[in-house]
Amino acid sequence: GKKGIVMSGIRSTGMLHLGNYFGAMQNYVRMQEDYDCYFMVADLHTLTTHPDTSELKANVHRVLAENIACGLDPHKVALYCQSHIPETAELYLYLNMLAYKGELEKTTTFKDKARQHPENINAGLLTYPVLMAADILLQRAAYVPVGKDQEQHLEMTRNFANRFNHRYGEVFPEPYAFNFGEQLVKVPSLDGAGKMSKSENQNATIYLADTDDLIRNKIKKAKTDAGPTEPGTPKPDYIENLFALMQLVSQPDTLAQFEKNYNDAAIRYGDMKKQLGEDMVTFIAPIREKAEAIRQDEKYLREVMEMGAEKARKSAQATLEKVREAMGL
Ligand code: ADP
Ligand code: NA
User: Fold this and answer.
1) pLDDT tens by residue, 229-279
2) What would the pLDDT profile of 162-186 be if each residue is shown by its tens digit?
3) I need a surface site. Which of 135, 275, 276, 302 has the fewest CB within 10 A?
4) Which CATH superfamily is domain 202-290 in?
5) ipTM
6) CATH code for 5-185+298-327?
7) How far is the CA of 207 from the centre of ligand 1 (A)?
8) What's the CA gap between 238 and 222, in Å, rounded?
9) Residues 7/128, Cβ–Cβ less than 8 Å
10) Is 195 part of the annotated catalytic residue set?
11) What are the extents of the domains in the chain?
12) 113 catalytic, yes or no?
């Protein structure tokens, strides 16, 4: 048997980047062998911002294709689209009765978004954590592989689950953040500041869809300096970051050679960036090409989503039966 149920939502907006790959996708791929995984492309969540409807399906297809190209196997995990699971709306309604205005208004992401877009503070935005809770609790997940920024939402999910269980009887397990321990890597940005992210400087982020030349150019432009003048000089952050990227995509002996050159104060950053650029291209190109081929195959993507939705709806319906019975409906 599997070690438990895992559920995670994947944003449908924005292209996946190297940080998502090493910080999330790679872990999902490892989990699919041992856990009963439900991975959902979150298209309903994007509706709070009233996006252009013509782009919704294309975004879902792109993110699905990228995830499959990274190694998620639609036969091993339920890979599905949020809007294909109508059961979500029903649980969302029930959970809304257990969510309080005060706690929703205090959510960090709500406060941020409300400040950024005061003209569009809709109820869907306010109850975003309730929809997220519905996604997770429908699958009765025990683990949710989320980053630190989602911990507050997950705690709210546990609160809603507990309130339900206390009021109506035990239906939901309390979901906890999956602890990756040592495996959790932080991929640094190319500009030497902070982590790689889609919202930061585009030139400092390597996307899985970037062309070979774009990748080479971004790495060429990464911040360096004149280099250490004496052996044993500690590395500045932006140089440390280049080595961290090299550790992710280059061969160990390549990394060791440049480490040695640095420690001998004999490093040439031009050479290092050239090597890193080639190794990055070797790493990204097959993923990009595979994703592109999958994205073109709409029939295959439809089959994947149907298969995923079938599995996710089956377990959602079983949960809702328990929910309705507990609530006396
Ligand atoms: P972004 O920061 O680009 O907006 P998200 O917040 O959508 O990315 O994150 C999706 C997943 O990718 C999360 O699990 C997050 O922890 C992971 N992730 C994002 N950026 C990085 C990074 N630079 N290093 C490691 N993991 C990352
Ligand atoms: Na982020």
Assistant:
1) 999 899 999 999 999 999 999 999 999 999 999 999 999 999 999 999 999
2) 999 999 999 999 999 987 776 678 8
3) 302
4) Tyrosyl-Transfer RNA Synthetase (1.10.240.10)
5) 0.94
6) 3.40.50.620
7) 12
8) 8
9) no
10) yes
11) 5-185+298-327, 202-290
12) yes
